[in-house]
Amino acid sequence: MFRYMLKRQLIEDATSLRFSIYATIILAGLVAWSLIFAGIHQDRLANFSQNAIKRGLSLRSSSSKLYNLIWVSQTILMEPQSVRFIADGHEGQMPQGLSVSMLGSRLTGSQGDSEASILNSPDLTSIVQIIFSFFALVLTFNAVSYEKEKGTLRLVLSNSVLRNKLLLSKYAGAILTVGIPFVIGLILSLVLLSLRGIPVLSGGYMIALSLFFLLSLLYLSFFILLGLFCSTATGSSKNSLVLCLLCWVFIVVVLPKSAGPLLRLGSFSVPTEKAIAEEARLAGREVWNRHSGEDMVTSSPQAESTKLNVRVTNEATQAEERVFDLYLDKKMRVVSTFMAANCVSPASLFEYAASATAGTGLAHFMHFRRQVVQYQSDLIRFFKDQDMKDNDSPHLYFHPDYVSKKPFDFAAVPEFKEHVPRLLERVKNAAAYGAGLILYNAIMFGLVFISFQRYDVR
Amino acid sequence: MANQQPILKADDLSKRYEDGILAVDHLNLNIYPGEVYCLLGANGAGKTTTINLFLNFIPPTTGTCYVNGIDVTRDPLEAKKYVSFVSENVMLYGNFTARQNLDFFAKLGGKTNLSKNDYYQVMRRVSLQEKAFEQRVKNFSKGMRQKLGISIAVIKDAPGILLDEPTSGLDPKAAEEFLEILNELKKEGKAILMSTHDIFRAKEIGDRVGIMKEGRLVMERTREELQYEDLVKIYIDYMKSEPLKI
After folding, report:
1. Which residues of B touch A (CB under 8 A)?
2. Which of A133, A162, B169, B174 is positioned for an S-S bond with B143, CB 3.0–4.6 A?
3. Per the omega criterion (within 30 degrees of 0), is the bond before A398 cis?
4. pTM across the whole model
């Protein structure tokens, strides 16, 4: 019985005008986005490669003397990932990378607004989030009410048909109607991206895309259920359409933007880079001021005053770096708080889940930062190892006058290589958001089924 | 008929809506195989509510509906296996052809092994034009849709048939054809409950005719009794009489 109803539903949906519009927009949208992304990604890769070359040259220029390494500040950019086609994670609005030296690491590149707008990051996620969700509602807003208005609902239910099965067939029909053109569009996108030289046919990419597809279905399922609920909860198709549109605007547009102001995120505001730099300078000066009366004249490396000078220099540098680190942590916390507050909206849950699964966005940046900090430790260890080899060096780190001044093997300097988070880690990051979407679906399922059980079919 | 089990039975059936209106008031009905029972009454008399109660679209306030001896409220899915329904304005899936609609509803009615020829045969039987068999239903006239509606009931081959003002709005020829089909179904032993405003056709086709007023069955006559009485006069007299005290 179920399959007959499902088949009928599918035929009806597939022959409708709205489906033709939906399928055309999906295919055209995905093709257009694939071509646009291919161009953007190639530019990003070129920029990244240029930066890597510059970084190599800067390191090479310091290879004449070991102590020069102390002053080399490398600008390390996050590697452009092709998964940003799927979920950008607002990376365009986030720090593009970090400047790292042995003395510390700082943000570099443009830093976006922590209250990221959903419309500012074009990616597959935002296409599904905004356009597909709208169509999911358009496909289902009158699934039940129109049948009642036509009279076919009475005729169907005059047979031995369970209401739940009828509803389930409508739900499954809508999922397939939404899902099939989406799969075709995705395959088309992969072909286009591949033809443009973007490595998307790897196993890892396919898994990321499959997970994204499942998350998309979960997200669209919520809107399909919402459409069915409006269709059963209102008296007519017109009322259902109005209710659906209001719900869509609230869930997709209003709710993801209202959590921030509601939480008064202004009180979490992070100062500008200039203000942070000034605060760091003051923190360093404060260290020097604390030792202002002490003898810190640098004479011989063995002199206590020299050792104190080096110690205070390092202390002041660390104090400055701590200020930068604190603000970076605070910025990350603001974004995390904002994201947590936004989880009231299924649209935000989907966006965060997609971004976490793809390994982009905040999770990507945090992973990158951890790697940069590790790289900094590797550099320091390398520096110390090299310095220890020089018996003439007084080993007073990191004063340029009291470390080895001998040339060293440039090829031995550790290089930064970004590693993408492992799949398991990405899935773990996305689990909470995915669970939120499942919960929303479960609630909506319950509401729809109760509503349809009580539905007056006359 | 007394020793036969009624296919359609209303036992002390009442329905009071949430707004307080008593739509059906202690109705007792027994419709036997091979019998056509016509329910007459003004709008709001409770005819459609009675049919809705038989189809379990609404629960009764008191009393019970039985289809083939099965309590409709207790086991609606089982009960609906034994009853077909044709509404006043049969609306089908417009993008489907007549045959596709028939196929879908036949399958819902449990007939899963029918061939294209079986569907054609049924449509021929209800006098639907051959050229309409594979045409989309959205362009069908009301008469064609009613014929397709009755063909759905025919193909289900249930022992009970519920008809809610099926000839309303049909031209005389189409209505006559419709009644011919009903006569055939009656001869096949179907128990038919038909609500209608059409007194003349009720007299023509009905083995028994009942008049409902304000939810009550106020009069019932057999075909034999009506040979000596004027149904129109009886109907008008009942409609003119004082409102019932409910």
Report:
1. 52, 55, 57-58, 77-78, 80-81, 83-85, 87, 89-93, 95-96, 104-105, 107-110, 149, 152, 156, 162
2. B174
3. yes
4. 0.85
